[in-house]
Amino acid sequence: xxxxxxxxxxxxxxxxxxxxxxxxxxxxxxxxxxxxxxxxxxxxxxxxxxxxxxxxxxxxxxxxxxxxxxxxxxxxxxxxxxxxxxxxxxxxxxxxxxxxxxxxxxxxxxxxxxxxxxxxxxxxxxxxxxxxxxxxxxxxxxxxxxxxxxxxxxxxxxxxxxxxxxxxxxxxxxxxxxxxxxx
Length: 183
Fold this sequence. Notes:
Blueprint: H1 10-13, E1 19-22, E2 39-42, H2 47-57, E3 82-84, H3 87-97, H4 111-122, E4 127-128, H5 150-154, H6 161-173, E5 178-179
Parallel strand pairs: 1-2, 2-3, 4-5
């Protein structure tokens, strides 16, 4: 998901990326991560995201404002590798699965939860790994890569990771997913 690297982390994440979900601020732009076999699934959260993608594909001028961090100005994926996620899946994740109040502005599911919802639609069996936030230690790593810590997720106003953790716990308890992460 997003810009999580595979190269150099094969021991943790394997060697194959079939699908990579991304949005403008999270897409890889470093060509060393180019994989011709990956399907890049574009997730649009706002109108500016769609405009960004259209300009990139049409060689238009990219306006890098209206984003929480500057989005990529080029893609390492070629057009036939890119798909656009149906916004229905974002709404289904937020309102049907996580039960976010519809009036809650600026809250949306994490890319991980959106990926799980997509997997429920296209896979016979769903395995998950790495969905374990450690809220007791805010200096613990957020991801298997980089320096981000749990404190950044705690401060994030866009996600309700507590609701996501409760939902994941139910999925695991009911055997709807197979959790590969060790406790």
